[in-house]
Amino acid sequence: MKLKESVVAIRKISQVALLGMGMMTLPLANADESSCSPFTPLVKGQEDFVYVWTLGVKGIGDESDKLVTVDVNPKSKAYGKVIAKTSVGGRGEAHHMGFTDDRKFMWAGALDSNKIFIFDVATNPAKPKLVKTINNFVPKTGLVGPHTFYATPGRMVVAALSNAKDHGGQTGLAVYTNAGEHVATYPMPTTNGGDGFGYDVAINPNKNAMLTTAFTGWNNYMADLGKLVKDPEAMKQFGNTTVMWDYKSMKPLKIFNTPGAALEARWSFKPGDNWAVTTTALTSNIFVYKQDDKGEWQQHKVGTIGDPAKIPLPVDIALIPDGKGMWVNTFMDGTTRFWDMTDPLNPKETYTKKIGSQVNMVSPSFDGTRVYYTTSLLGNWDMKGKADEQFLKMYHWDGKELKPGFEIDFYKEKLGRAHHMKFQVRDLKTLQPLQATVESKTKFASN
User: Fold this and answer.
1) d(CA 122, CA 178)
2) What is the pLDDT confidence band of residue 270, given thresholds at 50, 70 and 90?
3) CA quadruple 28, 221, 143, 249: dihedral positive or negative?
4) Can you tell me the distance from the alpha carbon of 257 to that of 318, in angstroms, rounded to the nearest whole number?
5) Whole-angstrom Cα distance, residue 111 to residue 371?
6) Which secondary-structure segment (H or E) carries 211?
7) How far is residue 86's CA from residue 68's CA, in Å, rounded to a whole number?
8) In a domain, 56, yes or no
9) Is 443 part of any domain?
10) What is the Cα 237 distance to its own chain's centre?
11) Which pLDDT tens digit goes with each residue over 222-262?
12) For the chain, how many structural domains are there in total?
């Protein structure tokens, strides 16, 4: 499908969805330091490596999904270069990944094969080693499409796309030990306004709050775009909710009607803040979740990204650690945007820059002075021909302008499609807990 045809197809999806046949959007990812779990110690100084979870492409390199390691320390002789490639053997639609709460292991999922790969990223951070593959995710959890990996004390929460029975929209959250043993599965709510759909998860321990978003089931997620838009029944299968949970009890507190397909969930961890944010791809809206004077969570539509009529398709978002700004990528025009979030209920777009023909993930460093971008959205949904750019780009940010640092062409390097990013350091002893930056300044309570 060519770029022009893709735009037309997405516009058709939007028109159908807005007529009440369901909400549709492209999948995206979260990757920046500020989107890590608050239970994971952070890289608050110069990151040494960027790990890129990469989709294998037939006819390119070894054709396998792989964890690519890039040296990003400017003092290194290998600065801006690939220094390691850890293949998993085969293609399973590599998508998201997440650190354990000690940042010693990386969990990475494959949506198509339903495999979960656990990498040792502590013994030798420059050369991650695959130490375990979870092959029984489906029979153990009753779910398919392991999507988001979010650390809690001694545990990993895995948000999945679908259920194993029909691969449709109803899904749940699976909880594992750090060793990879299944503990429990929690279904997404289907009563009191819940539609059972799920996508992303984010936790604020200080508020004992967990926010989840909704997208669509595995059947639609993995479908060919052209066929999907021609299938009226498939177009009805999209979620329209977000859910605020009691984190410790894992019980829903409040279900919100969020039209336009909410995607990534992000909390501001600035001391004193009590709000989270998400964006919608179809309607290009920004929604903020904030407690009112009575302590009840309320949803607020606070902004519009670009011109919704042109279907910019907001994808990844990244809050900066002080909560005063947010990066937003729009896939179809390959543009990154910076929003001033000083007043989260009245945000303003202050900067835009075209990164490439397509752009998906954005990952700012903790100090906000370096911003990384990758391109792949989904194997069956990426652009075609010359517009199918696959790269990792790093920019320097001075608060006013993005200035080029380095770029790696993933096709030229025979790596595949550059997708999700995470940072790491050579010496894990330099990592700092988020506790020092939150209002309690005490140890987070375990679940």
Assistant:
1) 14
2) confident
3) positive
4) 23
5) 27
6) strand 209-213
7) 6
8) yes
9) no
10) 21
11) 887 667 668 888 777 888 999 999 999 999 999 999 988 88
12) 1
Is 331 domain-assigned?
yes
Residue type, 159: A
CA pair distance 166, 138, nearest whole angstrom: 12
- Could you tell me if residue 446 is inside a domain? no
195-231 pLDDT, tens digit each: 999 999 999 999 999 999 998 888 877 887 667 668 8
Whole-angstrom Cα distance, residue 355 to residue 375? 9
Phi, psi of 403 (to 5 degrees): -115, 130
**Structural domain of 189:** 3-437
Measured distance CA(342)–CA(339) in Å, rounded: 9
* Per-residue pLDDT tens over the stretch 400-412: 999 999 999 999 9
30 burial type by CB count under 10 A (0-12 exposed, 13-18 middle, 19+ buried): buried
Instruction: Please tell me the distance from the alpha carbon of residue 293 to that of residue 247, in angstroms, as a whole number.
Output: 21
Torsion sign, CA atoms 157, 158, 164, 170: positive
> Looking at residue 63, which CATH number applies to its domain?
2.130.10.10
What distance in Å separates the CA atoms of residue 439 and residue 16, rounded to the nearest whole number?
45
pTM for this prediction: 0.90
Whole-angstrom Cα distance, residue 360 to residue 335?
A: 9
